[in-house]
Design brief:
single chain, about 550 residues
Length: about 550
């Protein structure tokens, strides 16, 4: 007689599956073969990852070029004497800027520039109490001897571009300086920029943005890192390697004739500054970017305003791509400049693709459970390096340059990547609207004059944006990634957890903060209406 180790068929099956589990400890199943569904998921995943990794390679190239050219700062052709200083018109475009207009005019009237060569235009499209406040401030400074005028439009045709073009009709300056309402220019900023116009081919000089309230909360900390990546790495590299870079809408000076010769301010895109910049450079004008000179600004402290700002930029740049890139490609420019402009103008296409990549994550876990660690190393890591690690190198280099290697902001890099993921739905909608020609109005970014870490008064102020339906979609995707994370833990797919955590945090943070801040607004709105108007604005000082 034979002695059987198993007494029942159930015990036999249990031991069989235990043996298979041991064999699949490295997630390689001897019984599994890829089917059509698996191949479809893998093809889509690696296709998207490969496409995004191309932009990652471009980002790494920018980092390399930045460290290579970081000391090649522009130098004025010569220093202008006091008698040679040109007349400057300072344009201040406003739209419902009740809380910051006083601060703006205080800063502009303190500019260290000969008063007889300085004209100030307050270009106000406001529909609220800002009109009265701005008028009062203009009268106040006019009585002090400033050449300052208040220009109000009854309609917002062209939005900011329309206001700037309207101001050009009465502008008397050879140079045009522009400062948005949330900026606080330093007294010496005009003198630091004006000498570059000794070169007759220079059309625009742009300063780097710095941040008044960058440490206010987690959102502002992450925003400043994202902005620093653009202003430290991108703008510097494009300028110092001979490529095109764009005026950022504020904190810069234009040569008036360059604006007029290139067709002036146009409002067929939401980023009139980028549009004008590339039209001017296509004509052969030069731009100068000042990395080491900054103009302080206020960044949004609430999530819905931040999303609206990012959405406007994403849509506007895509509109500029559709409008100008065919002309750029046909122009007599070096191929490297054309390729640089391609990456610059098409980068926002990554947002719709990111949504598809998000949807693929759970099916990918099911498929990749049966793939081995060797295949993961062979295919995933090179692509993930160029598409993910490149982001950390990009923003990390900006932080390192500004703060040094011991900056605590370096610890925020994973959250910056998550925040970029969280913008996917909002910015993808903007990109699709641009591609399909859907016209939308210029959505301003609310400013509340938040300058101190303990200032919570903005929660009781108006201009707050509503969240719409997108936060519900973002919360749904956060739940989706939470379930994927739990599944990955259960299946011991440890290598996927960091990426799933980034996706979860990005969508959860965006959705939850949008909902919470809207609930907070509904609580404070009735109380705000009960406050006397004198409590809302203190008036000029």
């Amino acid at each position: 007689m034979f002695a059987f180790e198993f007494n029942t068929p159930d015990e036999l099956l249990q031991r069989l599956f235990e043996n298979i589990a041991v064999k699949t400890a490295e997630n390689i199943s001897p019984l599994y073969r890829l089917d059509l569904f698996d191949w479809t998921v893998l093809a889509l995943y690696f296709g998207l990852l490969g496409f995004l990794s191309i932009y990652g390679v471009y980002r790494i190239k920018q980092v390399v070029d930045f460290w290579r050219y970081r000391h090649s700062a522009p130098v004025p052709k010569r220093t202008l004497s006091e008698a040679e200083l040109p007349r400057v018109t300072v344009q201040l475009p406003l739209f419902n800027e009740l809380y910051v207009v006083e601060r703006l005019l205080q800063a502009v009237t303190a500019l260290d520039y000969p008063r007889h060569l300085l004209q100030i235009q307050v270009l106000d499209d406001s529909t609220d109490e800002t009109q009265g406040v701005a008028r009062s401030l203009v009268q106040h400074y006019a009585q002090q001897g400033f050449e300052i005028e208040y220009i109000h439009r009854a309609d917002r045709t062209g939005f900011k571009a329309g206001a700037l073009a309207n101001g050009m009709r009465t502008a008397t300056g050879e140079l045009i300086a522009i400062f948005d309402a949330d900026f606080v220019p330093r007294p010496d900023c005009l003198r630091k920029m004006v000498h570059y116009f000794a070169d007759p081919l220079v059309a625009c000089v742009q300063m780097r943005w710095s941040h008044i309230n960058g440490a206010y909360n987690l959102l502002t900390r992450l925003q400043t890192i994202m902005l620093d990546g653009h202003f430290v790495i991108e703008q510097t590299v494009r300028n110092r390697t001979g490529g095109f870079f764009n005026f950022n809408g504020t904190a810069g000076i234009w040569r008036r004739c360059a604006i007029e010769m290139s067709g002036g301010w146009q409002h067929d895109t939401l980023t009139e500054d980028t549009d004008l910049s590339f039209r001017v450079q296509l004509m052969g004008w030069r731009f100068v970017y000042l990395l080491d000179e900054d103009t302080p600004s206020e960044v949004p402290v609430e999530i819905n305003a931040f999303k609206a700002q990012q959405r406007r930029w994403a849509k506007g740049v895509t509109e500029v791509a559709l409008k100008l890139y065919p002309r750029i490609w046909r122009a007599h420019l070096p191929l490297r400049v054309k390729l640089e402009m391609f990456f610059r103008l098409t980068g926002n296409l990554s947002y719709p693709l990111m949504i598809i990549a998000s949807l693929l994550q759970f099916p990918l876990l099911l498929v990749r459970y049966n793939q081995g660690f060797y295949q993961l190393m062979l295919f995933d890591l090179p692509l993930l390096f160029f598409s993910t690690i490149s982001v950390a190198l990009f923003y990390g280099s900006a932080i390192w340059y500004l703060d040094g290697g011991r900056s605590r902001r370096l610890l925020h890099l994973p959250l910056v990547m998550a925040l970029g993921i969280g913008l996917a739905f909002s910015n993808a909608r903007a990109v699709l609207e641009a591609l399909f020609g859907v016209r939308t109005e210029f959505i301003r970014t609310p400013k509340y004059r938040v300058e101190h870490a303990d200032d919570a008064t903005w929660k009781r102020k108006k201009y707050r944006r509503r969240h719409g339906l997108l936060p519900l979609l973002e919360i749904s995707f956060a739940i989706y990634f939470l379930l994927a994370f739990i599944y990955a833990v259960h299946m011991e797919l440890w290598g996927t957890l960091p990426f799933l955590a980034l996706f979860f945090f990005g969508y959860a943070y965006m959705g939850a903060m949008s909902l919470l801040q809207t609930v907070n607004e509904r609580f404070w709105q009735p109380l705000r209406r009960l406050l006397p108007s004198s409590r809302r604005f203190a008036g000029p000082t």
